[in-house]
Design a protein that fits this description.
The protein has 226 residues and is mainly alpha-helical. It has one domain. The protein is 78% helix and 0% strand. Helix 4 packs across helix 5. It is rod-shaped and about 140 Å long. About 6% of the residues have low confidence.
């Protein structure tokens, strides 16, 4: 017997089924969209977290690298300061300066005087390893802290060279048995003066202070992360 689809009960059933199917499809679509949105949000969150971790790791690695450069360099600057101060100390045992190559025509008195002028050079030579290490580290330091960061190295090197060159000038002056107009000034360079202003000591202190200004901030950050 044919079914009359126009009967109210059948129409209601058909409409009800269609509505239910549409609702189910809509719910499924909404769920899919929601899941996709949640998935994208999770991906974005994961990506942001990964980027933050990468930035932190890079910053930490950079800070660690700079700390590894700054700490030994600053320590060597302190050693160089003390070494230069010791090299310029006028108090010297009788055998110091004896590594100087003597001329054959020197009297014993002349030799002792020339040896005494050679003492600052000899003392600095004894610490060649320290100054060579500083010279070698300047380019690594520049790579970590920039071009201007090598200025303290240059200041310290200039002082070292000036002390040695001045000592040689005094030795040559003494060999010629004459006292030039620069004699007294030269003596203030190779020997430290505790009673008057010492320009060499002030310049060394300034170079060390410059290095501290560069290194202390990064070393302070490292201590905070311990």
């Amino acid at each position: 017997m044919p079914v009359d689809l126009n009967q109210p009960q059948i129409m209601a059933a058909i409409i009800g089924g269609s509505v239910a199917a549409i609702v189910s499809l809509a719910v499924a679509l909404i769920n899919q969209i929601s899941l996709r949105g949640m998935h994208e949000e999770k991906l974005n969150a994961d990506r942001e977290l990964a980027e933050q971790k990468f930035r932190f790791d890079m910053k930490f690695a950079s800070s660690k690298r700079r700390t590894e450069v700054a700490e030994p360099t600053l320590a060597d600057f302190y050693k160089a300061r003390d070494t230069i101060s010791w090299a310029r100390s006028p108090d010297a045992p009788g055998n110091e300066g004896a590594t100087r190559v003597r001329a054959g025509n020197e009297t014993e008195e002349q030799a002792r005087h020339l040896d005494s002028l050679y003492v600052p050079i000899e003392r600095l030579h004894k610490n060649n390893e320290l100054f060579s290490r500083l010279s070698a580290s300047r380019y690594r330091f520049q790579a970590s802290f920039g071009v201007r960061a090598i200025e303290p190295f240059e200041k310290l090197e200039e002082i070292q060279i000036e002390i040695m060159a001045t000592a040689y000038s005094l030795i040559n002056e003494a060999r010629r048995n004459r006292v030039g107009s620069m004699h007294d000034h030269w003596k203030t360079i190779i020997w430290k003066n505790l009673e008057e202003e010492d320009s060499i000591a002030s310049r060394v202190a300034a170079a060390v202070a410059d290095m501290e200004a560069i290194c202390r901030p990064i070393l302070g950050q490292a201590e905070q992360h311990l």
